[in-house]
Amino acid sequence: MDPVRNPYAPGAGQRPPELAGRDRQLDAFDVVLERISRSRPERSVVLTGLRGVGKTVLLNQLRSAAVSRGWGTGKIEARPDQSLRRPLSSALHMAVRAIATAHRNPEQVDDFLGILKAFALRATADKGMRERWQPGIDVPAITGRADSGDIEIDLVELLLEAAQLARDIGVGIAIFIDEMQDIGADDISAICGACHELSQDAAPLIVVGAGLPHLPAVLSASKSYSERLFSYHRIDRLDRDAADLALIVPAEREDVKFTDEALDALYAAADGYPYFVQAYGKATWDLAADSPITAEDVLLAAPTAEEELAVGFFGSRYERATPAEREYMRAMADLSGDDGPVATAKIAAELGRKPASLSPARDGLIKKGLIYSAERGTIGFTVPHFGRYLRAQTE
Fold this sequence. Notes:
Organism: Antrihabitans stalactiti
Pfam families: AAA_16
Number of strands: 8
Protein name: ATP-binding protein
InterPro entries: AAA_16 (IPR041664), Cyt_c-like_dom (IPR009056), P-loop_NTPase (IPR027417), WH-like_DNA-bd_sf (IPR036388)
Radius of gyration: 23 Å
Number of domains: 3
Keywords: ATP-binding, Heme, Iron, Metal-binding, Nucleotide-binding
């Protein structure tokens, strides 16, 4: 069939043509936005799940929902070993600029921007560097608020000031943070503390984060009360109906249909993971001669989809690992059956090593986002079917 008309989109963070199976999270977020618009207290939101389940796509959709209500929004992608000040300053600057024109008092807006600039300039302790780097805010910095150098104090003060600005206008502000598990310990503690203050004040400002399955544990390790600060949503694979919908609806727009057997084969291949649904759908479309798409088309296209996943989705991650880390992951794959968590003690036994000697490899893989601590004493792959991929590499 015509590849130009192919509707499927297997891309990192790329919105699929049909966002299926996420109505519950979208509806819950609409309730959050509506409650805040009525000055009712609400918790910030956290999305968790493996890679490839569509967390970034959903995060972007939630942001669109906030924008549609006139909210100011900004988004950042956290990175390991990166301070929160600069990216958060840019995101908050973007959010405030979106709502500033509706404020009746431009001087109050400028005052906030001055506070934001002072907060941003604390991103480095070196005075000379501060003088050379500017955050792109065209007002003088205002000292004495959100610039103490203690991120926990400064972030509370800054976000409360931003919330007051939004309250004066009658809208809200939402800061979206992707890869939230990569935020440093001091900064994650500051976010939790700020969200605590914001919720107590019923402030019209929320944080919406997305991260790997161990993100709740990261938050809990920072603040014991974090489980009450956020509304947690686990994003998982699609059920059969939703996976079928993700394939059928875009195809029908192009007057193309699937046989029931083709949908059976596609679900078996993709296992309900949204990224895989798009990858197998795209490969099958390109190979199929005409409509309806059949199970035979799926069977013939599967090697193409698997090859693309092996290079782009699995292989690119595997290549980042050191030889010791690859050995650790191969042992995980042999023990996990497919992708399920496996006890670290079993990995050590499999490799004939003491658990302590494997800590550098394990910690390196966690920092690279390839594995996560599922629960105490166990570890799991962050990428679905990664164990299957590794076992295939050694066969």
